[in-house]
């Protein structure tokens, strides 16, 4: 590369001038223009091109050694040919052969009579070599090309190339007659060259078509992985299936034609001079002009030219034809991968950046831009330019995305030395606003289409080159086309494409000859488009067929192929012919390749109006309805259970991550038509005018194929599209029913609502495991459902058996997945479109308030051992939100996509504690204020810069809460004293001058429990501060900070919330423990009214948007509405939204209500005015120290509440889930542990009052008197508590002491009082005569009747379980990391020690025949010496049965129930059943798992239908 470029920048003007005058010096930049490599015409042009070839890859050979050099190169070429003639991996050597052939011809043509003809051949080879290199890079990593069509085409291409080389390597004639001979043979040679060119081009086109088909096999799935056009947002493409390389080539513009030789020379020269000028500070060349003026061909030409000269860093060609190229979703990824190929010296840097950037947790565009593009380019150590090409930015559909890309370019370009960016676009206002004023942008005034001086010459050359091989197109025809184009390249290229591809060329020329070219560009193109369409109408019937095809292509959310259209229109047998006839406006008509609209102006034309389209109008709603019906018809025929065939006989249901090569399997088992229909049928339906017939059609489809559709969407990773599509259909059905209520519309709405809620409620489960749609997700649907009753019956054999008394009901609200712990924060965006939940386990989830879908990926702090998320706040426009983490980092995310806006920002080394640090966005400036320990700092939200710190302004007070006024002029902070942490103080700043204007004392503040303490009025004239202790509210004037009034509200425990009305007239407040609300006038602070009516404390208040009403949510489980200012009760629009409400929050526009009630996260659409209660009353929650017991017979289960005041012992029947009697009132101090007797007749409990009680399990009555046991702990479970196998004895161990009693007589049979916490007993022998345990030094077995004992030296510190073999003298004991087997004889001898992985392993059991030993999920064959791990596929039969031999090989881990035999995940536990202490309270017996709902009621899941049988 160094020989291409001059030395670095000179520091003085004389040196610069000297360098400019030495342009021919070998050390200067010498980029070879494409047209210089490929010009045809006069010898002068040939010689000019030769002169530009200084020290590039094609050096000019001297005439004296040209023949020798040609012969040497030919020999190298034929050597390559011999080596690869039978090979399958032929791309790389063929690339070498192609380059050698170019060099041979370059040498040969210098001295030959037909130099121009050879140059024509040479110019053909340039794009061949370029595309071969691109194909090689795309397929890099594959061992070979296996497609036979590709192989055959390449070999034919090679044979023709060999003939050409033979011709070129013939020696030139010698002697005095050589000039005469060359003159005579020149014409024949030219004809031969032309034949070779045509033959070579034919083979090349065959190869390109075969390669495109091969690449398209992995291409169709691409666009469905991103958000559809109508969705408005794009999601990241993760390279899940290893085919991303073959997808990104769409963005590289390889299918875009280059400028014809001799055209666009002026603008090309200007850009070339700009590129080599390393002195200029103008790093961006913006080429902007109207559509169809040739911007993309210029960009493609320069991209290929710069690629050949090795200065191209990357390219991205935006296009409306595909979702990947009409958004920025893969922009950074495509550029990065292109850079890795084109600039090999930074390949490692790019790959490290890709590895570092987690695609499982999507980051925002600016983060990707910095890490994938800026960082690698900054690592380049070069003194020459590197170029980026970004074409047709106007085709990026989202203005916000265009803005972010341009801002990133302008912000980061100057940080990359010698970077040059060629950017093209139409002059859209938003693009112009950003680029016109920038000092680093040039080319703003260049225009490609000058009405006063049209580019006739360029167009004439273009038309001549394109049509010269079409015999029936005369020179007169070509001139006519040039004249009608009037300088517009789009017109000329459309006509040329039409004449090259259409079957009706004569008709086209006839139509063109009869037309008059108007001067207005839009009218000119409209007339041409009408000509294109009309020439395809060979009869009346063709018009209808053509419109069906056209409508399908135009409204498709991604390009679809001829075969896909044929699947959608099965009765239309002329698709391929008609698409071919429309070759002027449609591209890639191969049956397997997606069809693209050549130019956006054609799409605009057919979608415009009846008058303009003149019979060819594509009516969008009607067309969407047609395609939606076609999609559903295709799915009805194709969808079925386990569509991919992944569930093998005798295997567990696989999770998506368990399926190898999932992407390839999807492509193999489904067609492009099915994949398109799966992704987009719902989107087409919602964009259509849905008729009554179509509503019925949709309803029947959901009743028959919902689960199969969801399954395929899950396999493809598109559950979010399911949620979005069904949400839109649900919204449309709701509106239709409201406008025209009927029995039919009511049924439609009910079916669609249940389908929508099914996907929303189970979206996490469905995203992980497609086949669980037929399993646990289906089981937990409501009874008497309009669709799920039929599904449950159809797939009964695939469902676990669930026993519960809980009645599953889905109201009009959405029951969401997404939280598994207590809620710390619940925040709505100001525009009411998003809400955020931060749970106690440190996980942040962003939800779409309209659909209930999880947006993006839930966040958990990756830099902290325990994730802690502090304050979360939205910007005033709702487009961004910021949150702070326990690792003291600040994150800023985009609310619409759930992706990072800026790289996370680290502040200091102190931890950020939840509920202490707060943040606030400025509503008028790009600033974020945040509390950082003792101070406040400001972050610039666009550049990520730390602006300033207010740490010195808080006068020894720790900041607790901050807020900006709505007009952005004032800033208020409330803090607590650093000394006594009680006295509060408020500080007021004028933000414009950044000066503190006032401060004043406030009531007591405790920072460890701070709700918001600052609020501004809507008009910014007033603000209020308050403390969390005391009822005083300080109303102040914003401009001065002076006091207006001290307001005293209700409540001894401090003021909880103050809200101002949106209209700037009132403020309302309520206390922490009060049921009343106080209303004041805001200007002077006069009390207006006290609102009473709730019977319990108020949790949340909110003014309506018009300020005329106030809503309050109370702990009395009601939502009430009051008039303002009177405070009179009004009819509530929230009727029915009552129940066990926690964390209730109204959206600012009063259209949404989010609550946490019972075990559900609920989202209500308040516009539906649904009726009925949604609660069953107060839950009886499972607590951390509650204890559960299940009998080994599996007929009863019991639970004891640790903190219950009435003893809290409840018993349930496992066969029905019904409670057996009321809660047993025993100890009033709470139960610390409980255990069933082996015969299932008794329950023994330990209590905090240091007593043991024994209960009759059937009658729930106490047996005998309580036993006082002094060694018990008041708050902790005993170390051991167990019955003997015959249920006659009861043992307890605690605090180093052990006791055994006779259950019936209460006689103490044996005791051991130790002096160590490591002294206790843990198991009875099978005959109930001996007990095993440990003391400080030994493992022992004691006869409880005689007291005799045998000992063995203890090896490990703490044993957890013990078990006797039922057949052999063996004792097994476990500890945290392993298991020991002891032989019982005259003493205890350690036989073997086995290790296993740590975890929650429960139970230690021998099989009934004594051969096997099981501990949690592990099993060993102890009949062999040494014992071996049991490796059978199914559990040993001797573990089946009743009594002591019952053991479960099911475990609970990370939200899933797992099996050991067979090994794997069985089913997920729905998130609403994943209670906070589930890891402690799950219980397995046999094939059943015991879970609990939030009311403390059991849910028994029998997994036997899902477990394969031997």
Structure described in brief:
The chain has 1510 residues and is of the alpha+beta class.
Give your account of this protein's structure.
- The protein has 1510 residues and is of the alpha+beta class.
- It is built from 36 helices and 69 strands.
- A hairpin with a 2-residue loop joins strand 65 and strand 66.
Number of helices: 36
| Backbone shape | globular
| Spatial sequence of strands, sheet with the most strands | 2-3-4-1-5
Question: In percent terms, what proportion of residues is strand?
Answer: 15-25%
**Ranges with pLDDT <50 over ≥5 residues?**
1-29, 37-64, 140-145, 172-185, 216-246, 358-363, 909-916, 1169-1179
Counting DSSP E segments of at least 2 residues, the number of strands comes to: 69
Averaged pLDDT: 76
What share of residues is helical? Answer: 25-40%
* N→C terminal distance: 68 Å
User: Largest sheet, described in full?
Assistant: 5 strands, parallel
Q: What structural class do you assign from the helix and strand content?
A: alpha+beta
Structural Rg: 39 Å
Strand and helix layout:
Layout: H1 13-20, H2 34-38, H3 43-51, H4 66-84, H5 91-108, H6 115-138, H7 148-168, H8 178-216, H9 244-248, H10 265-276, E1 284-288, H11 295-308, E2 312-317, H12 331-342, H13 347-356, H14 365-378, E3 386-391, H15 399-412, E4 419-425, H16 429-435, E5 441-442, H17 456-467, H18 475-485, H19 489-501, H20 505-514, H21 521-535, H22 540-555, H23 562-568, H24 575-581, E6 586-587, E7 596-597, H25 600-606, H26 610-613, H27 620-638, H28 662-669, H29 672-686, H30 692-715, H31 719-739, H32 743-761, H33 763-768, H34 776-779, H35 788-794, E8 801-803, E9 814-816, E10 823-828, E11 834-839, E12 843-848, E13 854-860, E14 869-874, E15 880-885, E16 889-894, E17 899-906, E18 919-921, E19 927-932, E20 935-940, E21 946-949, E22 957-964, E23 970-977, E24 984-990, E25 995-1002, E26 1014-1016, E27 1022-1026, E28 1032-1037, E29 1043-1048, E30 1055-1060, E31 1066-1071, E32 1077-1081, E33 1087-1091, E34 1098-1103, E35 1109-1114, E36 1119-1123, E37 1129-1130, E38 1142-1146, E39 1152-1157, E40 1160-1165, E41 1187-1189, E42 1196-1200, E43 1209-1213, E44 1231-1236, E45 1242-1247, ...
Helix pairs in contact: 4-5, 4-7, 5-6, 5-7, 6-8, 7-8, 12-13, 12-14, 13-14, 14-15, 15-16, 17-18, 17-19, 18-19, 19-21, 20-21, 22-27, 27-29, 27-30, 29-31, 30-31, 30-32, 31-32
């Amino acid at each position: 590369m160094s020989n291409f470029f001059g030395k670095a920048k000179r520091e003085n003007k004389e040196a610069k001038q000297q360098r400019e005058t030495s342009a021919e010096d070998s050390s200067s930049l010498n980029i070879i223009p494409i047209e210089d490599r490929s010009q045809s015409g006069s010898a002068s042009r040939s010689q000019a091109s030769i002169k530009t070839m200084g020290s590039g890859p094609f050096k000019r050979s001297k005439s004296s050694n040209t023949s020798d050099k040609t012969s040497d190169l030919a020999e190298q070429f034929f050597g390559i040919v011999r080596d690869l003639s039978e090979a399958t991996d032929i791309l790389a050597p063929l690339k070498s052969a192609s380059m050698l052939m170019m060099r041979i011809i370059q040498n040969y043509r210098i001295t030959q009579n037909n130099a121009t003809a050879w140059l024509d051949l040479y110019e053909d080879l340039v794009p061949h070599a370029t595309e071969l290199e691109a194909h090689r890079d795309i397929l890099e990593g594959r061992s070979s090309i296996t497609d036979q069509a590709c192989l055959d085409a390449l070999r034919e291409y090679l044979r023709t190339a060999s003939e050409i080389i033979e011709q070129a390597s013939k020696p030139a004639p010698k002697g005095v007659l050589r000039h005469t001979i060359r003159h005579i043979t020149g014409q024949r040679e030219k004809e031969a060259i032309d034949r070779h060119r045509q033959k070579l081009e034919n083979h090349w086109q065959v190869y390109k078509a075969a390669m495109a088909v091969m690449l398209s096999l992995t291409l169709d799935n691409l666009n469905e992985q991103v958000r559809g056009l109508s969705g408005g947002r794009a999601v990241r493409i993760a390279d899940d299936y290893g085919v991303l390389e073959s997808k990104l080539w769409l963005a590289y513009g390889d299918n875009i034609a280059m400028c014809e030789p001799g055209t666009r020379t002026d603008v090309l020269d200007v850009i070339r001079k700009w590129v080599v000028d390393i002195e200029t500070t103008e790093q961006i060349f913006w080429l902007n002009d109207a559509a169809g003026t040739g911007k993309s061909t210029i960009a493609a030409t320069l991209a290929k030219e710069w690629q050949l000269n090795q200065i191209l860093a990357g390219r991205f060609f935006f296009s409306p034809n595909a979702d990947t190229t009409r958004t920025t979703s893969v922009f950074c990824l495509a550029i990065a991968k292109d850079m890795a190929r084109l600039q090999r010296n930074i390949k490692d840097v790019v790959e490290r950046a890709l590895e570092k950037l987690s695609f499982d947790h999507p980051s925002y565009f600016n983060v990707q831009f910095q890490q994938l593009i800026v960082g690698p380019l900054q690592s380049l150590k070069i003194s020459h330019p590197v170029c980026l090409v970004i074409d047709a930015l106007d085709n990026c559909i989202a203005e916000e995305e265009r803005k972010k890309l341009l801002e990133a370019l302008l912000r980061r370009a100057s940080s990359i030395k010698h970077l040059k960016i060629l950017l093209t676009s139409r002059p859209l206002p938003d693009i112009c606003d950003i680029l016109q004023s920038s000092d680093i942008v040039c080319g703003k005034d260049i225009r490609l289409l000058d009405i006063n001086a049209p580019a006739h010459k360029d167009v004439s050359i273009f038309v001549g080159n394109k049509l010269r091989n079409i015999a029936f197109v005369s020179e007169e025809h070509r001139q006519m086309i040039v004249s009608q184009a009037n300088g517009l390249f789009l017109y000329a290229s459309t006509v040329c494409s039409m004449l090259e591809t259409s079957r009706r060329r004569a008709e086209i020329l006839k139509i063109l000859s009869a037309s008059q070219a108007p001067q207005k560009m839009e009218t000119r193109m409209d007339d041409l488009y009408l000509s294109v369409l009309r020439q395809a109408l060979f009869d009346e019937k063709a018009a209808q067929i053509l419109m069906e095809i056209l409508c399908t292509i135009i409204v498709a959310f991604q390009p679809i192929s001829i075969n896909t259209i044929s699947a959608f229109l099965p009765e239309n047998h002329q698709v391929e012919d008609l698409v071919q006839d429309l070759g002027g406006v449609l591209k890639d008509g191969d049956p397997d390749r997606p069809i693209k609209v050549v130019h956006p102006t054609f799409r605009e034309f057919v979608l415009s109006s009846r008058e303009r389209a003149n019979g060819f109008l594509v009516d969008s709603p009607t067309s969407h309805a047609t395609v939606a019906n076609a999609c559903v018809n295709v799915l009805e025929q194709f969808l079925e259970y386990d569509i991919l065939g992944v569930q093998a006989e005798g295997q567990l249901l696989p999770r998506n991550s368990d399926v190898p090569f999932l992407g390839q399997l999807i492509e193999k088992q489904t067609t492009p038509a099915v994949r398109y229909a799966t992704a987009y049928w719902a989107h087409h339906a919602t964009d259509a005018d849905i008729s009554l017939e179509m509503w019925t059609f949709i309803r029947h489809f959901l009743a028959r194929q919902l689960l199969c559709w969801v399954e395929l969407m899950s396999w493809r990773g598109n559950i979010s599209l399911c949620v979005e599509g069904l949400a839109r259909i649900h919204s449309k059905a709701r509106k239709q029913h409201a406008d025209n209520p009927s029995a039919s519309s009511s049924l439609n709405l009910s079916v669609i609502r249940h389908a929508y809620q099914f996907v929303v409620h189970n979206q996490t489960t469905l995203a992980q495991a497609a086949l669980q749609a037929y399993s646990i997700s289906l089981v937990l649907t409501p009874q008497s459902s309009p669709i799920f009753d039929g599904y449950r019956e159809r797939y009964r054999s695939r469902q676990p058996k669930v026993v519960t008394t809980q009645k599953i009901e889905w109201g009009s609200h959405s029951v969401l997945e997404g939280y598994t712990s207590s809620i710390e924060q619940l925040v709505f965006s100001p525009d009411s479109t998003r809400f955020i939940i931060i749970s106690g386990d440190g996980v942040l989830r962003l939800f779409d308030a309209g659909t209930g879908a999880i947006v993006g990926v839930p966040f958990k702090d990756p830099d902290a051992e325990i994730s802690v998320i502090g304050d979360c706040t939205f910007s005033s426009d709702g487009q961004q939100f910021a949150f702070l983490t326990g690792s003291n980092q600040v994150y800023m995310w985009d609310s619409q996509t759930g992706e990072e806006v800026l790289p996370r920002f680290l502040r200091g080394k102190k931890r950020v504690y939840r509920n202490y640090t707060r943040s606030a966005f400025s509503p008028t400036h790009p600033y974020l204020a945040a509390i950082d320990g003792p101070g406040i700092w400001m972050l610039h939200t666009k550049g990520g810069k730390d602006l300033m710190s207010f740490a010195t302004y808080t006068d020894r007070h720790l900041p607790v809460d901050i807020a900006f006024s709505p007009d952005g002029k004032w800033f208020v902070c409330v803090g607590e004293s650093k000394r006594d942490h009680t006295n509060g103080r408020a500080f007021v700043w004028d933000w414009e001058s950044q000066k503190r204007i006032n401060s004043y004392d406030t009531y007591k503040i405790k920072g460890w429990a701070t709700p918001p303490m600052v609020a501004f009025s809507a008009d910014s004239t007033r603000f209020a501060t308050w403390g969390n202790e005391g009822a005083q509210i300080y109303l102040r004037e914003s401009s001065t900070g002076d006091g207006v009034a001290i307001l005293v509200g209700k409540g001894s425990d401090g003021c909880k919330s103050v809200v101002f009305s949106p209209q700037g007239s009132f403020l309302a407040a309520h206390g922490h423990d009060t049921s009343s609300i106080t209303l004041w006038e805001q200007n002077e602070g006069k009390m207006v009214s006290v609102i009473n009516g709730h019977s319990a404390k108020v949790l949340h208040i909110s003014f309506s948007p018009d300020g005329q009403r106030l809503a309050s949510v109370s702990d009395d489980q009601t939502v009430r509405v009051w008039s303002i200012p009177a405070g009179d009760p009004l009819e509530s629009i929230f009727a029915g939204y009552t129940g066990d409400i926690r964390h209730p929050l109204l959206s600012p526009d009063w259209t949404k209500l989010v609550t946490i009630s019972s075990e559900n996260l609920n989202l209500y659409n308040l516009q539906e005015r649904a009726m009925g209660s949604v609660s069953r009353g107060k839950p009886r929650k499972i607590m951390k120290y509650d204890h559960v017991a299940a009998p080994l017979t599996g007929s009863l289960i019991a639970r004891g509440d640790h903190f219950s005041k009435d003893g809290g012992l409840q018993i349930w029947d496992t066969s029905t889930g019904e409670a057996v009697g009321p809660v047993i009132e025993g100890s009033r101090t709470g139960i610390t542990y409980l255990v069933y007797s082996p015969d299932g007749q008794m329950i023994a409990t330990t209590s905090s009052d240091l007593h043991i009680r024994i209960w009759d399990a059937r009658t729930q009555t106490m047996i005998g008197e309580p036993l006082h046991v002094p060694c018990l702990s008041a708050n902790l479970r005993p170390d051991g508590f167990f019955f003997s196998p015959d249920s006659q004895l009861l043992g307890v161990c605690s605090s180093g002491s052990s006791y055994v009693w006779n259950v019936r007589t209460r006689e103490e049979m044996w005791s051991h009082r130790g002096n160590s916490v490591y002294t206790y007993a843990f198991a009875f022998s099978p005959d109930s005569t001996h007990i095993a345990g440990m003391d400080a030094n030994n493992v022992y077995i004691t006869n409880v009747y005689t007291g005799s004992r045998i000992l063995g030296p203890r090896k490990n510190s703490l044993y957890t379980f013990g078990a006797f073999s039922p057949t052999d003298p063996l004792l097994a004991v476990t500890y945290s990391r392993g298991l020991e087997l002891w032989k019982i004889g005259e003493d205890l001898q350690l036989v073997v020690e086995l290790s296993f992985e740590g975890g929650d392993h429960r139970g230690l059991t021998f099989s009934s025949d004594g051969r096997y030993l099981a501990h949690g999920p592990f099993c060993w064959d102890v009949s062999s010496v040494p014992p071996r791990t049991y490796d059978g596929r199914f559990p040993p039969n001797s573990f089946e049965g009743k009594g002591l031999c019952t053991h479960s090989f099911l475990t609970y881990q990370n939200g899933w129930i797992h099996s050991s035999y067979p090994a794997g995940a069985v089913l997920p536990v729905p998130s609403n059943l994943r209670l906070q202490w589930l890891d402690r309270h799950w219980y397995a017996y046999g094939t059943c798992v015991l879970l609990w709902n939030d009311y403390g009621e059991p849910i028994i899941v029998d997994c036997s239908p899902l477990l394969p049988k031997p």
